[in-house]
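Possible regression after last week's pipeline update?

I re-ran a chain I had predicted before the update to compare outputs. Posting the input and the new output here so someone can diff against the archived version. Not blocking, just want to make sure nothing changed silently.
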Amino acid sequence: VQLVESGGGSVQAGGSLGLSCAHSGYISSRHCMGWFRQAPGKAREGIAGIRRDGDEYYADSVKGRFTISQDNAKNTIYLQMSSLTPDDTAMYYCAADSCPDSGDPEWSYWGQGTQVTVS
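New output (post-update):
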């Protein structure tokens, strides 16, 4: 399984940015995809997730500003970010795994990350 993020960059506070994550290889017939971020000196934070059936999850820190979506035909998930602040500056990663019946996925598969800088 390979995950490749794209779309990062620099943006001014208040602006918007979109990220993509293309995945190849078989994950699961019932897979979960997620977006995480890690800022320097901070712990990795799970910010959004989506199940193949479309159920979504958002961390409180991004709820109402970020939107996760997927195109199963293209094996791609997206993260549309708006109202960005300097606190959103981080390396953003996508991750994938099969969805458990309960609890969080183990997130076995990770992309290489894409940098988002908000100034």
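Follow-up from reviewer: compared with the archived run. The chain has no helices and eleven strands. Marking as no regression found.
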